[in-house]
């Protein structure tokens, strides 16, 4: 009994001492722990830094807004410039087409070549003038080519325009004052299939020329080059 009581007293004493030591250590550590206290100057610097950061963030947002606005303005300007360039390109193309149609520009493209030759056979009792090519034969071909979509036409390499004239002068014909002898090669730039089909329609130009004893040959060509129109001779 006494031994047990002594053991309890000893255990109680040990727990008391240990608890006292633990409490003392905690209090000492708490008192010894460094305490951070900012001075007025440090608080002032912190405030200045924060204010400067807020100002920079505000300026950055403003710059971003200005950048977006400038980008929109640039996009609008580029669009207007593209439209202007497109309009100018369209006008330039239209002017080039007009120059081509009036014969003021050198042109190259696909098309057909129609060769008109005097008849290779003339009966002895017939008149020779009935078996040669006349200006009306040339005009028939030129007219048919133009209404069928030909962009440019030339006779024996001489470009013609809306002001051109063709007249007979004995065994030759004159194109704007320049004489040409048979055979007459009429070159036209345009869709080869359309132009050749238009000439070869039943009862069309080719048939009419054959009936007039004119030898006709129509050839499709991949590359025809026609020089500009020269001023007609007075």
TrEMBL record:
Keywords: Coiled coil. Transmembrane segments: none annotated. It holds the Pfam family DUF881. The keyword RNA-binding does not apply. The keyword Coiled coil applies. It comes from the Bacteria. Residues 53-94 form a coiled coil. Belongs to the UPF0749 family. This is DUF881 domain-containing protein. The lineage of its organism: Bacteria, Bacillati, Bacillota, Bacilli, Bacillales.
């Amino acid at each position: 009994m006494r031994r047990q009581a002594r053991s309890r007293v000893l255990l109680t004493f040990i727990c008391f001492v240990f608890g006292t030591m633990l409490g003392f250590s905690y209090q000492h550590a708490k008192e010894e722990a460094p305490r951070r206290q900012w001075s007025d100057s440090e608080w002032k610097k912190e405030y200045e830094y924060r204010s400067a950061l807020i100002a920079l963030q505000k300026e950055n947002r403003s710059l971003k807004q200005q950048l977006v606005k400038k980008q929109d303005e640039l996009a609008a300007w580029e669009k207007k410039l593209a439209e202007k360039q497109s309009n100018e390109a369209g006008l330039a193309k239209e002017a080039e087409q007009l120059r081509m149609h009036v014969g003021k520009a050198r042109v190259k493209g696909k098309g057909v070549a129609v060769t008109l030759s005097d008849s290779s056979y003339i009966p002895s009792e017939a008149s020779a003038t009935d078996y040669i090519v006349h200006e009306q034969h040339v005009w028939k071909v030129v007219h048919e080519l133009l209404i069928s979509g030909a962009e440019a036409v030339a006779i024996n390499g001489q470009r013609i325009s809306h002001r051109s004239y063709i007249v007979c002068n004995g065994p030759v014909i004159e194109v704007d004052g320049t004489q040409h002898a048979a055979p007459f090669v009429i070159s036209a730039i345009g869709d080869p299939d359309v132009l050749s089909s238009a000439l070869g329609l039943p009862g069309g130009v080719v048939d009419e020329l054959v009936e007039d004893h004119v030898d006709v040959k129509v050839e499709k060509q991949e590359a025809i080059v026609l020089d500009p129109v020269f001023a007609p001779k007075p």
